[in-house]
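User: I'm putting together a small comparison set for a docking exercise, and I want a reference complex before I start. The sequence is below, and the ligand is 4'-deoxy-4'-aminopyridoxal-5'-phosphate. Could you produce the 3D structure with the ligand included, as structure tokens?
Assistant: Of course. I'll restate your input first, then give the structure tokens for the complex.
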Amino acid sequence: MKDSPSPHRFVASHLLQVPRSGIRDFFEIVATRDDVLSLGIGEPDFVTPWQIRDAAIYALDHGATSYTPNRGQRVCRRAIAGYLESSFGLAYDPDQEILVTVGVSEALDLAVRAVVEPGDEVLYHEPGYVSYGPLVAFAHGVPVPVATEAAENFVLRRSQLDAVVSDRTKALILNFPTNPTGGVLEHSTAEEIAAFAIEHDLIVITDEIYSELTYEGERITIAALPGMRERTIFLHGQSKAWAMTGFRSGYACGPAELVEAMMKIHQYSMLCAPILSQAAVVEALKRSSSHVEHMRSEYEKRRNLMLAAFKDMGLACTTPRGAFYAFPSIARTGLSSIEFATRLVEEEAVAVVPGTAFGASGEGHVRCSFAANLEHIKEAMERMARFVQRH
Ligand code: PMP
């Protein structure tokens, strides 16, 4: 009997052009071994604070098992509005300008799909979070990574944006504090970027998921700059700073027309965020700041330990001022970032993520997460020092 043609032919061609996540490939190799100390995962090692877990348990116990309004429960949207007002000085109307989503992941997807038309170009700084390019491609847009320079601590410059903007550019995605470099937004940079966005009439999608995990400097958001509110979609969620990755909780805020456009996709594709997560979010945003501060200060200690270890190894590393990743240069070893990460797992059983997983400009670097316990980090640093000495 003749073989039937492969089901591969049914897969949409624009999807085939998007490569699999480099992180996923690498960690499938790591998962085949059980002796590996991992600094690879972008996830807090803390469990969600008890008080937040309790709120979800209470809600479940009291029969919260239904759908919610598409936008999210009003009490949840009001908690988000209150939190944004007090923490960022941002005023969003909970009835029209806030949408509760399934993590920042869904919020990002909605924001991109709500504004991108086929052929529209979307800029994002690189090295950057792995999802931005693929999400733009899934929306039939054209991802345009803007490479930043290691020698300049990966700061995003207006000149780099000017070099790639075209009359097809529609949007700019920002992520501060940045995964994987730990860069934060300086006031002067924010002003330059805002002026650029206004000049080219761009919509800015800002992913501020690491905002509370800022160790130095002022916490600022581009959404608060003059002239930016009406052209900004602000995305945030509880996965990182509240250690709530499993709750899949996030939200998108912006002008009512844009939130309504995102709502249209959300109501047909997702319906609503889980009701138990929404109960947990209310507790997280209203009464959990001391837990967040405790975790932030623990990450800061771990960061400092990791930075000291890199210094002893002779690896140059920009101080991550936010998020929970260090992005040291491994140039002195002469290895590529993928060779370094692969051999480090093979020889010393430590997993880090090759910098190229975050775009070509991540070459010569690896990402090491300090969202792991101190003893684990100490041991991983000792092993890494042995490895660097040998290479
Ligand atoms: N944005 C960035 C920059 C991230 O690092 C992550 C998670 N790694 C996400 C978004 C997705 O987060 P969530 O769990 O809210 O979907």
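The chain is about 40% helix and 15% strand. The longest strand covers residues 169-175.
User: Thanks, that's exactly what I needed.
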